[in-house]
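Q: My labmate handed me this sequence with no annotations at all. I'd like to see what the chain might look like in three dimensions before we decide whether it's worth expressing. Could you predict it?
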Amino acid sequence: MVYVRAKTVKGDKYLYLVKSKWESKKNTSRQEIIKYLGKASLVKLNDVPEDYRKDPKILSFLTTHSGENVEKNQKLIDKVKKELFNALTKGDLDRCLDIFESFEKTNTLNVFYDSILKPVMYKIGDLWESNELSVATEHVSSNIAKELVSIITERNSVIKKKDKILVCTPSGEEHNLGCNVIQSFLQSKGYHVYNISPSAPTESVLSFISDKKPHAVFVSITLEDNIKSGQRLVSKINSQYKVPVLVGGQAVEGKDYKFDGEIIQNQPLEKIPRIIKQAMK
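A: Here is what I predict for the chain of 281 residues:
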C-alpha cells in the first residue's frame, strides 16, 4: 500500500511518499520511503512519481494538504455542497450519485461524508426547524440521503477481516443516517459492522451484544430529547458487558453531557479506526 505521510518539524509539514511492507518473520509492517516530496505548502502533483499520480488516496491527501490545492479544494467542496443540497431537496437520487462519483475521483469517501453530506444534512435540518423547509421536503431529503449512503456502502464494502462493531441508537431515536454513514465508512475499511438502528429497545441491544460479542459499540444520538435514553443504554451496556462504548452524533457535539462511555465530538471519520483501536486496549 502506497500513501503520503506528513512529518511536522518546527511547525512546518514535510511530505514523504511511502509504502507499507509486511514482514512475516516479525509479524508486523514497516514503512519504506519511496520519495521525499518536500514542504507541504510547496508540493505539487508533478512531484509525485508518475506511477502513483492517479492513486485516489494520494490525490486526496495532496488536495487537502498541499498549499496549492487547499483553496481550490475548498471552492470545490462549497460548489458540491450546493449541488447536493439541490439534488437532495428535489429528491433526485441519480443526480446525487453523479455528484458523489464525480467528487470521489479526486477525494476520498470520508471527505465526502465529513465535508459534504454532513454539513448539507445539518443545513436541511436547521431549515426545517426554522420552518424554511417543509416537513415533506425534509423527509424526502433524508430518505434520498439514506438511499445514497446505502448504495455507496454496497459499492465500497471490502472483505470483512477486522473487528466486529455494533452501531445503534437509543430507544426513541429514529434518526439513523449517522449510523449508516459510520457503517459505510467502517465497512470500506474491512470492519464487520452490525447496524441495528434506529430505536432498538435496550433489551434487544443487550441481547444482541450477548449473542454477537462485538469488539466495540457505537451509540449515535441526533436529538437532545434522546440524551437520557442514551445515557441509560450506555450504563446498561457497561453494567453487563466489558465492551468499549463510543457515543457520538449531533446531540452531543459541543455539549457537556456525561456518559459511562467515551464521547466522540467533532472527529473526522478517518480517525475513527484509531479511536476504536485505542478504546479496545
